[in-house]
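# step 3/5: fold
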Amino acid sequence: SMALSAQFRDDFTDIDLADFWQGDRNVFRIVDGRLQLNDMTASGSRTSTLYALAPTSTQATTRWQIQVENTFSPSTSNYTRIYLATDRPPTAADNFNGYYLQVGGISGDQDALELYRQDGASRSLLIRGAAGAVSANPKLSILVVRSPSGTWTLETDYTGGEDYDVQGMATDFTYPEAQYFGLGCVYTSTRSDAFFFDNILIDPIIVDDTPPTVRSVSAEGPASLRVQFSEAVQLDAAVFSVDQGIGTATATRPLMNDASTWLIDFDNPFTNFVEYRLTATAVDDLSGNRLSSQTLPFIYILPEAPLPGDLVLTEIFPDPTPPVGLPDFEYVELWNR
């Protein structure tokens, strides 16, 4: 079952980033109870991200809070992103679905705090704060609230305190669930140590304690199966086997962006019109819940091209009137050989 009983909180009093965070940990450090970008090898323009598993949902009102400081004036080459809710780890590729904040990145008196929705490689602006409010050495506290109906409220204290002012509201229900939270720094070498973060709170996060299940199995080819799971899964430890001499799978690859549907390949081909049984073991979801074992049947049916004579026209009854021992209807009789 799913339980709304937890928070994600990090005030960076613990100096070990590995407790929560993944990504570019080697270019971040914790100093005086704050997270700092510290990329001493930076050259040119770079993007570094940290992300953490923090599942959120519109099952309840969700709050995100964070303090951000940049000891520089943002520009198109130097700005901060806070990935509030994404379906996969946010990286420099920006190929995810979800929502994020951007601090500046325009330049000068147009720099603002903005809330975006990301749709794969494209994005849409939902809320834009006051123009110029983050144009010079921004130090701000941010509060974002999303209601179960998809109403977003963006609030900010531009002094870094907790006296929040509403920057705007928007309604968007495109992605009601997400898996990750992240921090992104876009920077040149001269700003490689000028990003700071603190007091992150996400409340609530979804606690997933339900193992995944196999929803369906179908033959995709003479030695491949399409397997759909109840949720996104990871197959690092998984084993798939088919009875009647087919054996164990030799390759797997996701077919859907959310990693819930996979193509499973075998070395030995299936036989036409034979019913097999697929057994899946050690399949983990993104929260680490494991499907210990599940077996489902499937039938391999090889479509065949029709040949001349396969369909036979055996009888035509064009004139039923007057009826003589037969229904008063015209008909044609076909026989599929």
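# step 4/5: annotate
The two ends are 52 Å apart (CA to CA).
# step 5/5: archive (pending)
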